[in-house]
Amino acid sequence: MLTVTDAFALTQQHRLHLPTETVSLADAAGRVLREGVRADRDFPPFNRVAMDGIAIRFADYSAGQRTFRIEGTQLAGQPQQTRNDDNACLEIMTGAMLPMGADTIIRYEDVSITDSQATITIEDVQLGQHVHPQATDRQAGDELLAAGLWLGPSELAVAASVGQTSLTVTALPRVALISTGDELVDVADTPLPYQIRRSNTYMLRTALATMGIAATLHHIIDDEAVLKTQLVALLADNDVLILSGGVSAGKADFVPSVLAQLGVQQHFHKIDQRPGKPLWFGTKVDQNELTRSELTRDGQTKAVFGLPGNPVSTILCACRYVFPYMRTSLGLPPAPARYAQLAAPVVFKPAVTYFLPVHLTSEPDGRMLAHPLPGSGSADFANLLAADAFMELPPERQQFSTGEAFQVWSTRG
What we know:
By secondary structure, the chain is an alpha/beta fold. Helix content is 18%, strand content 30%.
């Protein structure tokens, strides 16, 4: 069996190469930018006033002048005005262009105004204070947003500021979530004593939705011929298939053999971990495959994940392998590793990587603490309600002490 590290590396070696598409600025939230955005003019585009107050010439202040006649007002959004009289000032508002003949701003809080005369009431005045000089942030032509960025509120604000009405982004993958098993019934059905309602695919669809990916839901019974027929159609219509169940060693676990019959190349089946040991991963290359540099949606490799059907195993394998795979396939860098300290000791004797469900708390001293939630095994679905993450404990040890830090994988997006 593969180690966790080797299995993860294999998934990343076979990530999708998705095409690009152009979307409107209004529809770009949560997407991944694939073409850089450059400044169409300087940032700021003029000498911008940063405080409400008065605009003076610093040389007049240095010569001892403290009282200035107010000869006008410069508002934000108005054309640049000119200070004409050396003994005068202009009232000025935040965001306005610095008037010609002025180079320093005195805040309203630091002046006294009476009968159109402004008297400076402080002695510490610096040349150019409260002025945001033109091009100090960025110059025209500078790259503001690089390809590979996730487009959140700040990124979209920057794109809007340079007039980008549309953006080139990664096309979202077409994903099918497939539950298998005769024991599963629809959410709206009343299960018989030997049946349970389908829940894993709903869990996975909700998690993928946080990445902007809308997945379709499907269910296939434990019949090899039916499974083969439906998987043929789903492989043709989707970029990624994520199956839940049917990958263990039971007599009705047909998924690995059917996928092999359909030409899906197995890269691994079973990982040296608990829970989630039976995880299956493979890819299928269409007959009309293009060269990697020319890949399009219709000619690219398809990916298939076969997740164990027990709920805890399903979400663990999704968090550790599937969601990182989707992230890098969209063009994002791997997520930064997160670590937490054990809040209580843990003993786990099998020599496999153990993913311990934990509840995370942030302490006033800056520590992230992981509180173990052992539960009652990989079918303990309710235990997930209290868990925020899985803590990855290495296989070469049996005892893990309070205060030791290990990597955690979030179950909350």
